[in-house]
Amino acid sequence: MVLKTSPPDMPSRPATRFFPTALFCGAATLSNLMTQEPARSYGDPLTGNAPQTVEELWKGIDVQAEPLDVEVLHEREIDGVVVKVLRYRVGVFKGQKAMMAAVYGYPKGASKLPGLVQIHGGGQFAQSESVVTNAQRGYATLSIAWAGRIATPDYHVNPDRVKLFWDGKTQDPNYKITTDWGAVDGYHSPSRNAANDFNGLKPAAWTLDTVESPRNSPWFLCTFAARRGLTFLAQQPEVDASRLGVYGHSMGGKISVLTAATDDRVKAVVPSCGGISNRHNDSPAYRAAVSDDQYLKLISCPIFFISPSNDFHGLLNDLPAAVKEIRTPDWRLSISPHHNHQDTAEYEVATHVWMDHYLKGEGSVPRTPKTSLTLQTSDGVPTLAIEPDTSKPVQAVEVFYSREGQVDGKKDDPNNTKSRFWYHAPATRDGAFWKARLPLCGVDKPLWVYANVVYQLDKPVKGAGYYYRIYTADRFVVSSLPHLVTGTELQAAGAKSTREPSLFIESFEGDWEKQWFAYKPEEWGRSTHKIYTEEWRAPSGARLELEVLAEQPNKMAIGLNTSAAEVVLQGTGTWEKVSLAPADFRNAAGESLKDWSANRELRLGAKETLTGPPNKEVGGNWQGPPPRFRNLRWAPPAS
User: Fold this and answer.
1) Which of 32, 284, 366, 405 is most buried by its number of CB atoms within 10 A?
2) Closest CA to 214 of 276, 281, 294, 290
């Protein structure tokens, strides 16, 4: 039995639900259709006949028609980059002007640059780091502060200062001008109005319409603002208006998808950790006019999805559907194993690889690897065959598979999503293919599997990551579509259980780090979800044991979920045994674990901060060379 993904360069796509096929000839997108009619007064409240589809929501709106009323709040030069904190006019809603604050930057003296709109996530800021690093690579970038928060060296607006702005405390020395949504509320975390709901359409004093309407959604307002950001870029003398891209993280990932779907000025888009999973809502109007799938169906520009395997916001199980829904054949995926809502350089750099190719005409992006999954084998062990694009030298082919995925149609279990363990399956080359065996522990649970192909970059790329930490990448990853198989399908194909439950968790030899992870790989700390699986589940009454070799006296932290144990090491350069019971693990409030029943994530590191209140630090600043580990195991209770 062989299950195959759709050919990666020609995914099947449903027919559009909104518009006659003739309207989509050539490169036509929603914005073409919207501007075929005169602009209507979008800012006046509706008392009836609210839009019920994406087409109705955006019909007649011309985001290029109104003046921008640009205000420069602060300007400086950073390493040859002109950086401006400014505001531009989003629009006039209910008779009040809405102004969007942003950080804008470009290399001094440059012209005809490609332009990028960068969209932050829910708890984030518009930042100068992305603006500066992008400028150093030949881009003009507008980082929009849709939530009002701004971080630059000389102009900082944190949530407290946003509130000062809301309250009009202009005499306060910390007061800063920032985003002003006027009569509506597009702020988030916190919103100006505590009851403001990004997942709701009900009318309120701060919404645009007096009836349930998708125009009441802050998603609509933020997408409007991002599209106006494109208008700002297009009017700048240093920008080539024919080369505009959009990218964003988390909530910014969703806004990126909504923006690219409704504006044909976007020539490339990269959503990370968002834009694929917001599909369910009690409101039919929300599902029809705000949900991700309705916008994915309108994506006609090249799109690169960055989707960590354990992300809580952009769910991996929605990725195959998203790829089928988009209209463009130009798409790629980058799926980091084990990660939740964060990534490391070789995955984050996909944004720059994509934009460089489509906006600057530089480099090439290898095709999505083709994969075929065989469930029915002579020994009952499923196998995955991978055919990567070899137009660029392949550094590695890595296969990851999990038994914790949900394919039963039930509501997503967030603990399961964030805690899935991904086995690493060694792949060996066989002609044009790489092949990997997928031994299973039990056949009742689903099987999820995908492949990563690692390529060397033509030259190192420096960028600002999702949370604006500066990185340098020398390689990048192109992933296959994941295969999602039910336990019933495994059993029907005759798959066998060839792995047995084990008390021995980790040897720390060979490729052990492939099944552990770190968001700061330059540090020695590592985490794993192995203890979440049936194979390494803790027996009742067991102790967690390992051996540690440290060259100097130190404290280290062993974390478990939201708790941690502090371990004191003598640091004599010999192996020291560590043996821990549940009671040795305490949370920030000092409460001890009662047992191992809720094990999800195990962490080994120098120090970690447990979230309170009050916060609590466990471990210490590491001295000397990194420690070595061996023989991580569950010690059974004494008989």
Assistant:
1) 405
2) 290
Total domain count for the chain?
3
Gap between the Cα atoms of 521 and 628, Å rounded: 16
- Inside any domain, residue 450: yes
Burial 103-116 (b: 16+ CB within 10 A, else e): bbbbbeebeebbbb
- Candidates 343, 316, 319; CA nearest to 331 is 319
**Residue ranges making up the domain that contains 541:** 504-635
What DSSP element (H or E) covers 524? Answer: none
Q: What is the CATH number of the domain that holds 424?
A: 2.60.40.10
Give the mean pLDDT of 502-514.
97
Do the beta carbons of residue 450 and residue 371 sit within 8 Å?
Answer: yes
Residue finishing a domain among 465, 492, 519: 492
Mean pLDDT on 153-179 = 98
Contacts of 438 (CB under 8 A, 6+ apart): 381, 382, 383, 384, 399, 401, 423, 425, 447, 449
What are 579's strand-pairing partners?
A: 545
With beta carbons less than 8 A apart as the criterion, state whether 57 and 223 touch. Answer: no
Tens digit of each residue's pLDDT (9 = 90 or more) over 112-150: 999 999 999 999 999 999 999 999 999 999 999 999 999
Q: Which two tokens stand for residue 344?
A: 């490391």
| Cα distance between residue 404 and residue 532, in whole Å | 9
The residue out of 222, 245, 268 marking a domain boundary is 245
Name the residue with tokens 């051996």.
Answer: 547
Q: What angle is formed at CA 186 by the lines to CA 183 and CA 189, rounded to 5 degrees?
A: 125
Q: What residues have CB less than 8 Å from 479, skipping those under 6 apart?
A: 332, 333, 334, 335, 368, 369, 450, 451, 452, 453
Among residues 500, 357, 335, the alpha carbon closest in space to that of 422 is found at 335
Residue 364 to residue 353: CA distance in whole angstroms: 8
Question: 551-567, pLDDT tens digit by residue?
Answer: 999 999 999 999 999 99
C-alpha span between 236 and 249 (Å, rounded) = 25
Question: What are the residue ranges of helices labelled H in 82-141?
Answer: 128-135
- Per-position DSSP letters for 282-312, written without gaps between them: S-HHHHHHTSHHHHHTT--S-EEEE--TT-S
pLDDT for position 638? 72
Residue 482 DSSP SS3: coil
* CATH number of residue 579's parent domain: 2.60.120
User: How many Cα atoms occupy the beta-carbon half-sphere of 100 within 13 Å?
Assistant: 31
